[in-house]
């Protein structure tokens, strides 16, 4: 089973993450930011990844450390769970609509971190989540999962819909990239022989 557990403790946040890449989309989430928990649940459900994330952060300051550090810890857990990447499809992409909003997410489990995100949120916050922190979450994830990630919100007027399409598409994209390909079982999907 492709599973991992990560603990990250700093003066700003105390985080525990458990993931199962071959799960059924179950989640136990508590970050102290309700809308952020809702978005993490989209990753679990649409990626069929079991997620258990608990964070005690310095929310009396703001949500920045909590959101960024959850991204870091989740990225570390993915890197551990994926391992040497033998047999995975490596690449994944998804388009997801929600009413007027539409987002596209593309990932490469390349071993090289890179985030390219284009989303002009129509509101500064959604519930208690500062929309600027969506980029910080994905930057933390990318840097520690060692993936190339492209995120584009193609349409949308409602910030909730914009954000939800991004996270749903991200979950679907992870599912596609991490699926084991029976035609390349035991093979690292790279001409270099390593990722």
What report would you give on this structure?
This protein is α+β, with helices and mostly antiparallel strands and 195 residues long. The protein is 34% helix and 31% strand. The strands form three sheets. A four-stranded mixed beta sheet has the order 1-2-4-3, covered by helices on one side. Helix 1 (34-47) links the parallel strand 3 (27-30) and strand 4 (50-57). Helix 1 (34-47) runs parallel beside helix 4 and helix 2 (64-82) packs parallel to helix 3 (132-145). The two termini are 20 Å apart.
β-strand amount: 25-35%
- Low-confidence stretches are none
Q: Helix proportion of residues, in percent?
A: 25-40%
Q: How would a crystallographer describe the biggest sheet? A: 4 strands, mixed
Overall shape: it is globular
CA-to-CA gap between the ends? 20 Å
Structural class: alpha+beta
Order of helices and strands: EEEHEHEEEEEHEH
Radius of gyration: 16 Å
**DSSP strand count:** 10
Biggest β-sheet: strands ordered side by side in the sheet: 1-2-4-3
Number of helices: 4
Average pLDDT level: 97
Key traits:
195 residues, single chain, four-stranded mixed sheet, alpha+beta
SSE arrangement:
Elements: E1 3-9, E2 13-20, E3 27-30, H1 34-47, E4 50-57, H2 64-82, E5 91-98, E6 101-108, E7 114-118, E8 125-126, E9 129-130, H3 132-145, E10 148-155, H4 159-178
Parallel strand pairs: 3-4, 7-10
Antiparallel strand pairs: 1-2, 2-4, 5-6, 6-10, 8-9
Helix pairs in contact: 1-4, 2-3
């Amino acid at each position: 089973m492709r599973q991992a557990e990560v603990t990250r403790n700093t003066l700003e946040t105390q985080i525990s993450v458990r993931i199962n890449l071959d799960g059924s989309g179950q989640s136990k989430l508590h970050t102290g930011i309700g809308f952020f928990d809702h978005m993490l649940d989209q990753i679990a459900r649409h990626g069929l990844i079991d997620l258990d994330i608990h964070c005690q952060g310095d929310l009396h300051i703001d949500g920045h450390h909590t959101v960024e550090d959850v991204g870091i810890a989740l990225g570390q857990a993915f890197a551990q769970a994926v391992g040497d990447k033998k047999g995975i499809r490596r690449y994944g992409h998804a388009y997801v609509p929600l009413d007027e909003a539409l987002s596209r997410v593309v990932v490469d489990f390349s071993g090289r971190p890179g985030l390219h995100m284009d989303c002009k949120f129509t509101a500064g916050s959604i519930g208690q989540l500062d929309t600027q922190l969506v980029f910080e979450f994905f930057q933390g994830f990318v840097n520690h999962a060692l993936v190339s990630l492209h995120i584009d919100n193609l349409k949308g007027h409602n910030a909730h819909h914009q954000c939800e399409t991004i996270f749903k598409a991200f979950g679907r994209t992870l599912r596609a990239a991490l699926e084991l390909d029976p035609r390349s079982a035991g093979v690292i999907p790279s001409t270099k022989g390593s990722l």
